[in-house]
Design a protein that fits this description.
The complex is a heterodimer. In chain A, 35% of the residues lie in helices and 28% in strands. By secondary structure, chain A is an alpha+beta fold. By secondary structure, chain B is of the alpha/beta class. Chain B has one domain: Class I glutamine amidotransferase (GATase) domain (Rossmann fold). Chain B has six helices and eleven strands. In chain B, the strands form two sheets. Chain B has a nine-stranded mixed beta sheet with strand order 2-1-3-4-11-10-9-6-7, with helices on both faces. The chains are: A alpha+beta, B alpha/beta.
Chain lengths: 79, 237
């Protein structure tokens, strides 16, 4: 089973990386008012049950993949 | 022989993670300041008999994921947490600060510098709390100049909770107004844990211990820690 975790900077948290990317996009002529840059983690899991897999990935996020003070995470399970 | 040279030399552990690069500078600084610092490899499960612990600067685990996020799971960190829980003084410098935040031993988190640029320069600081094991040789409000060199030193914390930390004396050092090198909340440069025996700072006191390098203000920070370690050694004896 595969899982995809999207980790994003929390709303309100300064994201200088996103700011820099937005600046470059504007420089290229694109009309972008905000850019936020996060991180994508792809996991290959041994679990066969989707719900069990989701719970396991949630624990991974809480313990390591995301820092709850500054980031949010979203889990997608791909059976 | 000076009084300092006659004083007993406390033992200080300096942890080396894969990617630490200021561990030897820290050992050198403590040697100058009258302590016996020894390097402890991150894979050790136990700390040797020491009176203080330092997590040095560097780029542990290549700063993968988030700075300090992987290092906090190093075997030695369990021993460091027990040492801190027992009241032992623990200092995190730069990457060590990031590790302590990720480990939950210090409040907040460190984000990429607001400028997105790596900064490497002397910064002026103000001592906000001079009654910690890391600032006891300073005066309240004293001005210090200590270099920083980091890409992710923007200390972040829920703004509405900041007054609680301030009231508890946990904000120990601030950058001078207008001299904040990374955009940290409220110009915070050093923050302590709730018990006061754990502190992290982005500036590098171990790089400011020799007049040849422009400032010896780092001696006030590290010397305070040597005093605290010596006091702990005396209690244990």
């Amino acid at each position: 089973m595969k899982a995809t975790v999207s980790v994003r900077p929390k709303p309100g948290i300064l994201d200088p990386q996103g700011e820099a990317v937005r600046g470059s996009l504007q420089h290229l002529g694109f009309d972008v008012t905000e850019t936020r840059v996060g991180r994508l983690v792809e996991l290959e899991l041994a679990a066969t049950d989707a719900e069990a897999a989701r719970q396991e990935v949630e624990r991974m996020c809480e313990q390591l993949l995301a820092n709850p003070l500054i980031e949010t995470f979203e889990i997608e399970i791909v059976p | 022989m000076t009084a300092a040279a006659r004083a007993p030399r406390p033992a200080i552990a300096v942890v080396t993670f894969p990617g630490s690069n200021d561990d030897r500078d820290a050992v050198h600084a403590f040697d100058l300041l009258g302590a016996d610092a020894r390097l402890v490899w991150h894979a050790e499960e136990e700390l040797p008999q020491v009176d203080a612990v330092v997590l040095p600067g560097g780029f542990s685990y290549g700063d993968y994921l988030r700075c300090g996020a992987i290092a906090r799971f190093a075997p030695v960190m369990r021993a460091v947490a027990s040492f801190a829980a027992d009241g032992g003084p623990v200092l995190g410098i730069c990457n060590g600060f990031q590790v302590l935040c990720e480990a939950g031993l210090l409040p907040g988190a460190l984000r990429p510098n607001a400028s997105l640029s790596f900064v490497c320069r002397d910064v002026p600081l103000r001592v906000e709390n001079a009654s910690t094991p890391f600032t006891s040789r300073c005066e309240p409000g004293q001005r210090l100049v200590i270099p920083v060199k980091h890409g992710e030193g923007c200390w972040t914390y829920p703004e509405e909770d900041l007054p609680t930390l301030e009231a508890a004396g946990q904000i120990v050092l601030r950058y001078d107004e207008g001299a904040n090198p990374n955009g940290s909340l409220a110009n915070v440069a050093a923050v302590a844990g709730p018990e006061g025996n754990v502190m992290g700072l982005m500036p590098h006191p171990e790089h400011a211990v020799d007049p040849l390098l422009g400032s010896t203000d780092g001696c006030l920070i590290l010397g305070s820690l040597v005093d605290a370690a010596r006091a702990r050694m005396a209690v244990a004896a």
